[in-house]
Amino acid sequence: MHDTTPAMVIAVDGPAAAGKTTTSLVLARTFGLDYLESGKAFRVIACEALRRRRPVDDPDAIGNLCDELFADGDSGSVLASARYTPLALRSPDVTAAVPVVARMPDVRRHITALIHQWAAQHRRCIIEGRDIGTAVFPAAPVKFYLTATTEIRAARRVRQEPGHTYDIVLADVRRRDLADMTRTIAPLTPANDAIEIDTSRLTIRQVLHRMSAVCRTRGIDNPTPDNHISPASPATPST
Ligand code: DC
């Protein structure tokens, strides 16, 4: 695969609710990096498939949908659409459909190209996802793989999204892990050179200290002297 690694990309991979979003956002602020949540692109495709009544399990139909969505070659305009609110992209229907589209070769090809295009325009960046360090940017200079037990990740989700019962969320986390880890193309797995952090028994602050130390060791410097990890950072990782 053509690796268009930009000047500096940090890959943050791992299963749902391992702490990727929370930590990536703080690291982005700390080190002055642009941030991309790659899962959003997969959710946009699932969301549009449902909205346009395309069969989500039909690779040809979803491949055509990708061609339509990304026809103008401007990845940013699709992802920036105001239509894709967190509420729309995180609806139960979209969450159920997204692993189905995420295993399709056409979808992964389109989204990999989209991420490469985005990264080429954001030369110092942090990108979270499932396959950033393994498939999208295998030569990324810093790769993290965050994980935690399924039970702890489910409990975090319940705290973030009150109203969902623990047992249902646990079953959902297990189902998504299985789908992400067992698909044929770009399955969720740590890159050989990824730094793995089990966040199960760590606070966000502890996770951030480990990640920041690695970044500094690898020569990623703070753009401004007053950037720091805020003690007020949320205690609960979101993805
Ligand atoms: O991070 P998330 O829950 O928003 O991701 C949504 C879906 O997209 C999930 O099924 C995993 C998939 N995904 C992926 O396959 N590769 C990525 N780089 C990011 C997300």
SSE inventory with pairings:
Layout: E1 8-13, H1 20-31, E2 34-37, H2 39-51, H3 59-69, H4 75-79, H5 86-89, H6 92-102, H7 105-121, E3 124-129, H8 132-136, E4 142-147, H9 150-160, H10 166-182, E5 195-198, H11 204-217
Helix pairs in contact: 1-11, 2-6, 3-7, 9-10
This protein binds 2'-deoxycytidine-5'-monophosphate.
Give an overview in words.
The protein has 239 residues and is of the alpha/beta class. It is built from eleven helices and five strands; from the N terminus they run βαβααααααβαβααβα. Helix 2 packs across helix 6 and helix 9 packs across helix 10. It is globular, with a radius of gyration of 17 Å. 2'-deoxycytidine-5'-monophosphate binds next to helix 2, helix 6 and helix 10.
Number of strands: 5
Class, according to the CATH hierarchy? Alpha Beta
Largest pleated sheet: 5 strands, parallel
Low-confidence stretches: 227-239
What's the alpha carbon Rg, rounded to whole Å? Answer: 17 Å
- Helix count equals 11
Side by side, the strands of the main sheet go 2-3-1-4-5
The CATH architecture is 3-Layer(aba) Sandwich
Q: What's the pLDDT, averaged over the residues? A: 88
CATH topology term: Rossmann fold
What is the fourth-level CATH superfamily?
P-loop containing nucleotide triphosphate hydrolases
Considering the chains and any ligands shown, give keywords for the structure.
239 residues; alpha/beta; Rossmann fold; 11 helices; globular; disordered C terminus; binds 2'-deoxycytidine-5'-monophosphate
Task: Summarize this entry quickly.
The protein has helices spanning 20-31, 39-51, 59-69, 75-79, 86-89, 92-102, 105-121, 132-136, 150-160, 166-182, 204-217, and strands at 8-13, 34-37, 124-129, 142-147, 195-198. By secondary structure, it is α/β, with parallel strands linked by helices.
